[in-house]
Amino acid sequence: MITTVGSVCSGIEAASVAWNPLGLQFEWFSEIAAFPCRVLKEKYPNIPNSGDMINIPEKITRGEISAPDIICGGTPCQAFSYAGWKSGLNDERGNLTLKFVDIINANDDVRTKNNQSETIVFWENVEGVLTDKTNAFGCFISSLAGLDEVVNPGRWPSAGLLRGRKRNVAWRVLDAKYFGLPQQRRRLYLLAGGLDFHPQEILFEKYTGSLSEYPPTPLTFKKDGSSFEIFREYTDCVYAAYGTKWNGNAAANNGSLFVVQDGRIRRFSPLECERLMGFPDNYTDLAGAKKTQRYQAIGNSWAVPVVRWIGERLLQCNTKTIAQNDFCAIDCIPIDNDCKLWNLGKDIIAMDTYTKLNCSPIPEKAIFGRLSDIVSPNAIESIYITPVGCHGIVRRKNERNTKLNNRLEEVLLSISSEMSSEEIEKRSRIQQRGRFSA
């Protein structure tokens, strides 16, 4: 019976928000960032924070902390994302992913001595780990599986299954916008466990029909006396630097992380970002918290409904409807002895004449949220864009020859027209001086 969890790189604990209602008990956290640590202390005062994950294996071995049924974590993704220059295992943060395997091994050693089943592993990360040039993902799952050599198929699929010598490992990219959150957030979710654990039962589904298309919803609406306009039915991914760097990326160009309220344009507030991730309202609203701290902590966290979906399937998995033998019709890469790797692609894959497997980012029972349920009329003044800021966005678009959402550009031009000609000329002179100095 699965009841206990240990959390590594805990952040603000999306896993606890997702899994506590399911009856899972978190026994320890591992987090070092100051603001997330404050959140953990306030929200979960009775659960110890064991600090740096580097020390977790020794603490488990010595019995200073328990050896739980599940260990979950999202080791630092910067080494695997474009923002981190995709340095992979050449980046010390990427190597923390292999330290995560040391934690699992130490946990299994203690559990084996206590005649307990092997640890169930849950890991989340950005898609970029699959295309990392140092094959960090191959190193990670090969280590989890207990292989002697690192597997490198050349290109990692969005979904796959590895039957290893020590553990079975499965992974699948899922998009939060099909789990009730109006946010396009594609993330890699991985499950692993001993050879009697079948992660494919949890992450993959028998395909039952056509996959859902995201439904169109009105882009203008009223709420609590305010008029709102959005530029797409769902947002781009809420990222950690949203509170400080947000005017020059794709989300700025397509308008998905902007909202117009009563004729003025602004960012989504920290409260609205909490809702976009599935957290309770004001979950990160601690006394004295800066909005940039809240944006960063939220953007670095997990999509709660996706994690809850996986947890529910994990706890309900009593039958084997997708046994590994069913994969015999799918091409595999033999590794050694009985170890095999299945490339399951990113869509629907045929297992036999009558059975297909859903390996896409869309679950069989998709749920769609609405941005009208996310927005709040009580936005703080500091997240509104001034006419000067609106002018700057359009100016950069013209300088870089990029394309803005047509309606977004109309709104920005309308608001920037409030600038005086003197102000525009002044800013132009400042810009020219900057170019000359450079």
Write a structural description.
It is built from 14 helices and 16 strands. α8 (270-277) runs parallel beside α9 (291-299). The mean pLDDT is 90. It is α+β, with helices and mostly antiparallel strands. It has helices at residues 14-19, 34-43, 56-62, 92-113, 136-145, 200-203, 250-254, 270-277, 291-299, 304-316, 371-374, 387-400, 406-416, 421-437; strands spanning 4-8, 25-28, 70-73, 120-126, 159-163, 168-175, 186-193, 205-206, 220-223, 226-229, 258-261, 264-267, 332-336, 339-343, 348-350, 356-358. Helix content is 32%, strand content 17%. The chain has a 9-stranded mixed beta sheet. A 4-stranded antiparallel beta sheet has the order 9-10-11-12, covered by helices on one side. A 3-stranded antiparallel beta sheet has the order 8-16-15. 45% of the residues are buried.
Concise account of the structure shown:
With 438 residues, the chain is of the alpha+beta class.
Order of helices and strands: EHEHHEHEHEEEHEEEHEEHHHEEEEHHHH
Major beta sheet summary? 9 strands, mixed
Q: What is the terminal-to-terminal distance?
A: 65 Å
The outline comes out as: globular
Total number of beta strands: 16
Number of helices: 14
Radius of gyration (Å): 24 Å
- Unreliable stretches (pLDDT < 50, length at least 5) are none
